Amino acid sequence: MLVAIDCIIFGFDGRNIKLLLIKRGFEPEKGKWSLMGGFVRPDESLELASARILKKLTGLESVFMEQLHVLGDTNRDPVERTISIVHAALIDISRYEKQLTSEYHAEWFNLKEVPPLIFDHERMVNIAKKHLRYKAALHPLLFELLPAKFTIPQLQHLFEEVYETNFDNRNFSRKILSTGLLIRQKEKDKNSSKKGAYYFKLDKRKYTEHFRSFLHFIPNPEKFLKGL
Fold it and tell me: For strand 2-12 and strand 82-92, is the pairing parallel, antiparallel, or unpaired?
């Protein structure tokens, strides 16, 4: 029985949430799109294995990945019984774009345009997407992908990408400001309109203490917070 690591890397480019994929380099399914995966060596931890595999296949280093799930269906790999430990991360693409190598044809895809994946990798991605939404509801995770100061439209677009839904502009603005967790700045972003939009910063101290203030505008929060 083999133990494998599969790495799911979500990235944000300032506009869209994307998924990093590579071309599989061996049979079966050679040349098809795949997550970054490899086998755990006898002398390494799961964390070291995930970092090694990610660097070898993409060039990415110093990416913190969280262990999400274990898949062990008897027929998930057609060659040999394999247990897969799924890891995932969400990164700012601009911070890592110089590291990305093309040896295994690593490529970013918009989440809505992901090509067919090998084996049960689509299931892994769906598990990771659900976990991402869960994490975004509980922690200021998404704010770390935004500039130090951001506008309400920028924040709205990021949440729409993660939750794959559309928010009414006025309602989103009203609800997000009603939380009292954003600090308005004096400057405005004049690029989107003549009137401009005020910049804001997240009050991380208040967010930690009162994060549930954000949950009332997230669609179906009970779906992600069940059991808490």
Answer: parallel
Q: Is the same domain home to 148 and 133?
A: no
d(CA 192, CA 86): 40
Q: Which is nearest to 22 in space by CA: 57, 60, 59?
A: 57
Greatest Cα pair distance in the chain? 63
Residues 128 and 148 in one domain: no
Nearest CA to 124 among 86, 73, 173?
86
The three-state secondary structure class of 47 is helix
User: By residue range, what is the domain housing residue 180?
Assistant: 142-225
Residues 213 and 107 in one domain: no
pLDDT per position as a tens digit, 45-67: 999 999 999 999 999 999 989 99
Q: Same domain, yes or no, for 100 and 115?
A: yes
Query: Are 78 and 8 contained in the same domain?
Result: yes
For the stretch 62-76, pLDDT in tens is 998 999 999 999 999
Q: What is the C-alpha to C-alpha distance for residues 18 and 105, in angstroms, rounded to an integer?
A: 16
Q: How far apart are CA 213 and CA 155, in angstroms?
A: 16
